[in-house]
Amino acid sequence: MSLAHLRHRPPEEQRRRCAALVPQRCWDHLAVLSPRLAGGADNEAAMRVILPEPGRALHLRIPAEPFDGDYCLSLDLEDIGAGQLEMGFIIINDLTAPRFNTDRLPDGTLTYFGTAARHYEAELAAMRHGLGPGQVRRGLRMFDQLLPQLETFMTDHGYVSLSLRPLTYHVAVMYERRGFGYVIGRRRMIQINSAFAPGGVLARRMDLSTPFRDPASTHTPRGRSWAIHDGILEHLDGDRSFEMQMFKLPGVHAEQHTFALDPRVYQQPPWPSLSSSESRGRIA
Fold first, then answer.
1. To the nearest whole percent, how much of the chain has pLDDT over 70?
2. Do 158 and 189 have their domain in common?
3. Which is higher by pLDDT, 41 or 242?
4. Do 47 and 148 have their domain in common?
5. Could you tell me the residue range of the domain that residue 209 belongs to?
6. Based on the structure, what is the number of domains in the chain?
7. Of residues 271 and 76, which shows the higher confidence score?
8. Residues 143 and 205 in one domain
9. Which of 127, 112, 132 is CA-nearest to residue 222?
10. pTM of the entire predicted model
């Protein structure tokens, strides 16, 4: 049953199938926040399900209405054909944690995760509290529980692969550690890793010229991610952009690790060259 078919099922079935996506950690979090947010025995009352026309997408929001401006879980999925499901958007928030307004300027203008504009003061505060670029709150650390439930949802609905486009370096590393492989960007990730190694061109630019380029954070994915968000890639090849596409096959770990403190690991990458389907930007 594809998302298009799900859209035509009774609302109670839609909600039951979507509730199976959500880790228990999320429901427990709502119950702690406020009794009015908890959905009871089946939790479905705490969830908003949107299946827009023409029926190839699913938008899931928990709780049903935002709490203090945010959702605990925001998940957007889209059927992109050929048995592929795309995760266009996912945010997991700990709604008890402090909020850092990295998503908007003081006048309310949206920053679009820092891609259109940057609220430097909020970003600096977020970084010092252990957040990564694009985060407004710390997460709930429940992606490891969500992923297997998402894979079950995929197979139950006839999908054979999941694709996504990570917005930041540390998120790409997080996904690869959980079994995702690269459609676009694996060689660039390896190049970035080597450039952050001691003596590398990016390591030399971690010079405190801005607070986001602290040499002490060179060897962590999140530290590198802030430097990349700050535009450090222009010193690598003149291109500040971070363009990646990744995929996951249910039950399969791609073993495409690109983060290593010793770049010699990648002098002879063990993977085959990019296939024609990779060069097209979508899995065949």
1. 90
2. no
3. 242
4. yes
5. 169-280
6. 2
7. 76
8. no
9. 132
10. 0.87
